[in-house]
């Protein structure tokens, strides 16, 4: 059964508090991954239940091109790309890792966490794949959702959301203000 999304379901769109759906807008070179991981950690330390997935920022031991995702509920870290070796020309995206990450998002939705984090809305989702169904499931469940979207892909995000949601500048103070207002509205 396909999952409805706001742009395709006017009844769902009427039930959504657009403020609960937020995307951090970023450009190349902006440390959006670090911001999202730090924000999730701050909320968890404050006693909030945060679930979903976040992309870990590269560390000193990170290999070039390596992308790791962390399941924010279990703490499990998974590489998102296959290591095919030097000179490999095929796609390095690991379908198994993507499926495992989607399970982590769905588990967070089922647990009705305080905030669902989905690291990015990108080309995969715009093309109809990636975590598109998981975004829709979290929104349908009425949970606050935080993601990031590259400035060049805002049009795809707005098409998916039907224009609903809040676009945020990628700064901790703005993110903290969004969360405080979200909590106030949900109280």
From TrEMBL:
- What domain of life does the UniProt record list for this protein's source? Bacteria
Enumerate the InterPro entries for this protein. DUF2478
* Organism for this UniProt entry: Prosthecodimorpha hirschii
Q: Which Pfam families match?
A: DUF2478
Q: What is this protein called?
A: Molybdenum ABC transporter ATP-binding protein
């Amino acid at each position: 059964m396909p999952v409805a999304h706001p742009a395709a379901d006017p009844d769902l769109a009427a039930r959504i508090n657009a403020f609960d759906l937020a995307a951090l807008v970023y450009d190349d070179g902006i440390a959006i991954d670090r911001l999202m991981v730090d924000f999730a950690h701050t909320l968890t330390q404050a006693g909030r239940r945060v679930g979903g997935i976040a992309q870990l920022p590269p560390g000193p031991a990170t290999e070039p091109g390596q992308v790791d995702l962390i399941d924010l509920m279990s703490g499990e870290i998974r590489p998102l790309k296959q290591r095919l070796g030097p000179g490999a020309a095929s796609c390095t995206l690991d379908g198994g890792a993507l499926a495992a990450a989607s399970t982590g998002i769905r588990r967070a939705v089922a647990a009705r966490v305080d905030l669902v984090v989905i690291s990015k809305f990108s080309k995969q989702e715009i093309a109809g794949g990636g975590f598109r169904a998981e975004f829709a499931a979290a929104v349908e469940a009425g949970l606050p959702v935080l993601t990031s979207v590259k400035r060049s892909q805002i049009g795809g995000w707005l098409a998916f959301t039907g224009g609903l949601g809040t676009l945020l500048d990628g700064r901790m103070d703005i993110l903290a203000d969004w969360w405080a207002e979200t909590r106030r509205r949900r109280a």
